[in-house]
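Anyone able to model this chain together with zinc ion?
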Amino acid sequence: MGTARKARAAVVRKTGAPWTIEDVEVAAPREDEVLVRMVGTGICHTDIACRTGFPVPMPIVLGHEGAGVIEEVGAKVTGLKAGDHVVLSFDSCGKCHNCEQHQPAYCFDFYPRNLAGMRSADGSATVTEAGLPLNAVFFCQSSFATYAIARAVNTIRIDKDLPLEIMGPLGCGIQTGAGAAVNALGVKAGDSLAIFGGGAVGLSAMLGARAVNAGTVIVVEPNIARGKLALELGATHVINPKEITDVLAEIKRLCGGVNYAIDTTGIPAVMGVAIEALLPRGMLGLLGVPPPDATLPGNLFSMLVRGVGARYIVEGDSDPQEFIPRMIGWYKAGKFPFDRLVKKFPFDQINEAAHASETGEVIKPVLVF
Ligand code: CXF
Ligand code: ZN
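re: yes, here you go
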């Protein structure tokens, strides 16, 4: 039997409330689980969305871009051991149709396993406070805490010479963007891509596209500092929609249209522009969270005659056990400088860090423990 740990966790008590750092207990790992001492964790927009209304049970320990050091492994865990440096990602069942098809981001059990706040096997809690259960198990980690429980399937071992503090975002936001370009849309050398929104996900899509030697990569982004960074990191063009209001005409002027587009904004009018920017046989990848009542914009006849489509993409169509090492390979080769998106904050400044992301001042906040 393993040992439970005393820990500090950032708790959201009710929808819209700020994070409060509280003393909790993290359970001992079960036979198929690992216990990880957190070293760094990114803040993803989904964490912020869940704090402010995306439906999750309250009170809850969020956080799903954790990185740390394994302290204990359950008896049935293979391939991982105490002392390993790891990145945590999302959970999947490994048995359903989509898991068998190697598409774990579309696991039929994705929501119970990643967003229900409890172990999907039996509804038990991994985090308690004064003996009472807290909702946790968020993306099978709840990494806004000094310790996390994960499963082998969402625990990815990485080399010890990597900067562990900042590696966590590879487990969600960065894999979501880069994977959308490379895995889901299949961007290849010479292909053109327009990315709407230059936040962490959009710029990761740009970095992924650059890593596979895409041709024209346009980033549409109103924040001037983000646009400047996009150009520094490899975008061939940046369009500021505050200055150039006819974005569609500008894309056509630059390159005649694009093979692929990615929307990270969730704004239907922006998606409509992205669809019209596609060349024949083009595909738009939808990544942004839309307003709850939004419907897909776009003229169907215009889509028909070009044979273009649009699809939502979850977690970049990634199998984290394969795609995280692939991104790390690019990073080591100097082709994927995701570290340039990151700004570190101490764990107890979680509210300030999230605020800096919401205002656009910081692209990818990472909390360090
Ligand atoms: C989430 C986005 C909302 C649906 C589940 C997956 N991705 C990452 O944060
Ligand atoms: Zn996320």
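Residues 179 and 293 are 27 Å apart (CA to CA).
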